[in-house]
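Recap quiz, item 2
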Amino acid sequence: MPLRFALAGNPNSGKTTLFNQLTGSTAHVGNWPGVTVERKEGRYRNKQIGEEIQVIDLPGIYSLSPYSPEEIVARNYIIEQNPDVIINIVDATNLERNLYLTTQLLETGRPMVLALNMIDVLEKQKDVLDSALLSKQLGIPVVKISASQNKNIDGLMQAAIKASKEEYTSSSILKDSSLGKALDDVEEILVSLGIAHPLYHAVKLLENDSEVTKSLKLGSRKAEIDEICRVARESCDGGDCEAVIADLRYRFITKNCRPALKAAPRLEALSASDKIDKIITHRIFGLPIFALLMFLVFHMTFTENLFFVTDLPGPGIWLAGIVEGLVEVATNGMAALLETVGASALITGLVIDGIFAGLGAILGFLPLILVLYFFLSILEDSGYMARAAFIMDRLLRKFGLSGKSFVPMIMGFGCSVPAIAATRTLDSEKDRRVTIMLIPFMSCGAKLPIYAVVIPAFFSEGADLVTFGMYMLGIIVAIICGVIFKNTLFKGEAAPFIMELPAYRFPSLKSLGIHLWEKIKGFAIKAGTVLLAATVVIWFLSSFGFVDGGFGMVETNSAESILGYLGNALRFIFVPLGFASGPNGWKAVVAVLTGLVAKEAVLTTMAQLYGVEGDVLEDDGASGVLGVSLAASFGSIPAALAFMAFNLFCVPCMAAVAAISQEMNSRKWLWFTIGFQLVVAWIVAFLIFNIGTLLGF
Amino acid sequence: MQITLKELKPGEKAVVAQITGQGAVRRRLFDMGITPGAEIYMRKTAPLGDPIELTVRGYELSLRKAEAEAVLVDKK
């Protein structure tokens, strides 16, 4: 059995950064509380240390009496899995609140090491921290580290290994207080009953934390314990042990731990973070700055006229152009190669019309997704996202959401899957459910390629404005649905909003690199598996069919193919939405169906069905040709808009459905969500097509 | 003078006297360092008037006025 070291600490104290340093992993790090929602495990890689060590990264917690789901993951691991050592990581620049959890962790009786993180920031401020004094006061080893600069990480691990080999007993700073006697008595009874973590549970009993204590088997000693607790509570001010215990912990920290920190005099009354905050969350400028930042992010990604200079592409479009060029070269090269070796029509069809046409079409849009993600990551790493939650809370509450819904919602513009997982930072079940249901309405990175092909085919000017409009449509419909939910299914009091606002940080290049790399890796895996399989299957279904009483290869993309039959059979559902009319209408239906697997597949399917090939490429590039075919197929602007809207609102993709299923943790809610999204998609597309047609577009 | 935290104006300081209410919210406030005796500096309200941002125990905390109403403070 390897040794198990658990990283525990407050949200945003640097646990994941340390975890990445220790294990060489590239887990996601952000600067808003609650990035890690599930525990992660990895191996510590250091050949000089003979031991095998498993490191567990836990979600951040403020205390051992947590109440949001991701915090319960952390608490349960510590209490139920008994890690060999708890590495309590503490933000040295925010000592007081961080040590509050430390005083609770001491009561669990696990060997513990305190890792004082962000010591580089402290040194920059010329503050002096006496770790020996801190170690003496808390009775555990204390090691100064800087996780982001990889300083003294090995020293920390050595201390932890040493701690794992030593005898260790639980201790509580409450023992020296007026509650000490009662605590001793209850602990003694729990020990005699053989209950695990007796001291921790004794404190919980005194606090009357029924959430934790109701599962304890106290048997015949229950009355005795109740009596001790009752007397203790009466001795507390106002009969309130909970307040007294919290107060005692903070008092201990102020008296015994704060002297360890000698803060250098600050030259200025306001720190850099304060100054930035003053502007960004300003009463009047706060909202315009928020709108401007959001505009900039999307402008940089999608515009072809950067800062309104005609034909100066933004970074997103510029990179996309380069990648498209490369795909074209590769496709032509492959076609030439196949011709040289004399490959059969079947093989050429599969490789060029199937794989290259399919994957190539999406690859061209990867840069757009990455650029969007890059700018969102900067906002996240810098600490702005937490301010956005602060600024937007009031507004979001009107829509039945919470300020804390904001970050998951914004993440939804990148990908729904991590966004849905991120809803665990929300404290109330009600807020979580609404947020999960509405996240897919944020146009994710995979929906973008659909807009990028369809829109230019219908709008020669202002394509980026229409794209922006699609994003806005998603937001507006989400708001309408939120309001409806708030007044029907989810009536009642708003859940509390108590959130830390972390100090602003300069986003680290390494962290940004990790974000982008994760995205590329995820995309590569998807392209190599689901999408590759989908392209091959679609190619097969579109090239084979029943003709003249037999099964065989038919004219590719004809109505005789299997896909043609399928599309035509389901067309009646989509005819009222406009885009399924006309001789090619079934193609749009098939595209929508494959989109239920993955939204990238919508474009792949269309590229295949409308027969875009490498050798028909002209100056416009593959997407331009596809656009021309689409324009002919859809016929009208309202039909094209309805097609995009249906794809935007209908069930996101298999991966997102899996995430919804896991987070809702209920069949009923999963099916409700799926049904809800399909109905909304149909209604919105119907309205767009019919109103648009009535208005004469 | 005892008032609720909600009534504290930006730029003012106060000391926490008591936290009314009960249950999870109350416990969360304790966990975040809002305990009797804690010093609070009211930084600002959000652009739309709610929530509020304050400094407590050396860090910045944001909470809604609905939660702040449960915190009784002595204005300095």
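The CA atoms of residues 114 and 142 of chain A lie 5 Å apart.
Chain A has 30 helices and eleven strands.
End of item.
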